[in-house]
Amino acid sequence: MFKVDNLTKRYGSFTAVDNLSFSIEKGEIFGFVGANGAGKTTTIKVAAGLLKADAGTIHVDGFDIKTDTRQVKKSIGYMPDFFGVYDDLRVTEYMNFYCGIHQIPLADREKTMDSLIELVNLSDKKNAYVDELSRGMKQRLCLARSLIHNPKVLILDEPASGLDPRARVEFKEIMKELKDMGKTIIISSHILHELSEICTTIGIINNGRLVAKGSVAEIQSKLNQLSRMKLRTIGEFSKASAILKEQPLVSEIIEANDYIEFSFGGEKQEKAELLKNLVQKDIQVIHFEETAGSLESIFMHLTQEEGEND
Ligand SMILES: Nc1ncnc2c1ncn2[C@@H]1O[C@H](COP(=O)(O)OP(=O)(O)O)[C@@H](O)[C@H]1O
Ligand SMILES: [Mg+2]
């Protein structure tokens, strides 16, 4: 239903999306996860027809964004990561305005607007001014707007960030309803756990490349997979190395100039035990951490709470 093939997008000499490929089946709720600056919005904007790719393409419902741009635009509903200012516009006026843009016949408008406003639980706010709605309500209104032309694929850029827990629950319920209606949904976020309850599939993007894709369970199990560790000590290199060699969870030890690198196949608790073990054997540890760029360090970044990461 949604297929990205070898997509590359540069801003000047900087490559924001780097030969990215993945596909999403009909009916999936796909979580597009990556730290700030990973390339999510850029990818989404190419799909929405707002940016042109430097190489590669995106197909939506079989249509190529490069050659069938109009059809692709008809097939997707796009909710951007910002919400504009709408002075003196009421909810129904806002929806009516976008119905006009999508050329919904006048005779169908009221029905279309009412059903969408109801879907996003804003029926009691129909006459409220848009600018007076809460953040969660504005987001839901924006969602209603992106559904006006009844698209098959819905792309939501960071919809959950900044929502309070209650608004998140409501958002999740709406996503379920849309899934039941047969929509294919793509939701981006810089926080992994924000999506783990909503999504059927997760794709992790880092520096414009896809580093992992799978079901939420598969992604979670990857969390516990092999990580690459770096150890620095004051002297006692060969002794530290010998201790590491005795550990069943440690493999591929490399002694560099002033540090030791090794792979570790255990979980957090076991990692802490290993450090304790080294210290108890009088190794003066000054540095013990995941090497940058390993899958786990990317996950660490993505599992931070909102706010810490911005
Ligand atoms: N218009 C632009 N000009 C130059 N660099 C940009 C522009 N838009 C985004 N970038 C850069 O491209 C990278 C990816 O950005 P973006 O797609 O917005 O990431 P994300 O949505 O995952 O946070 C970032 O390093 C960002 O600074
Ligand atoms: Mg973004």
What can you see in these coordinates?
- With 310 residues, the protein is an alpha/beta fold.
- It has 2 domains: 2-215, Rossmann fold (3-Layer(aba) Sandwich); 224-301, Alpha-Beta Plaits, CATH 3.30.70.
- 36% of the residues lie in helices and 27% in strands.
- The protein is built from 11 helices and 14 strands.
- It has helices spanning 40-47, 69-75, 91-101, 106-119, 135-146, 165-180, 192-196, 216-223, 237-246, 268-280, 295-302, and strands at 2-11, 14-24, 29-33, 55-60, 63-64, 76-79, 153-156, 184-189, 201-206, 209-215, 227-233, 250-255, 260-264, 285-290.
- The strands form 3 sheets. Strands 6-7-8-3-9-10 form a 6-stranded mixed β-sheet, with helices on both faces.
- The two termini are 32 Å apart.
- Bound molecules: adenosine-5'-diphosphate and magnesium ion.
- Adenosine-5'-diphosphate binds next to strand 2 and helix 1.
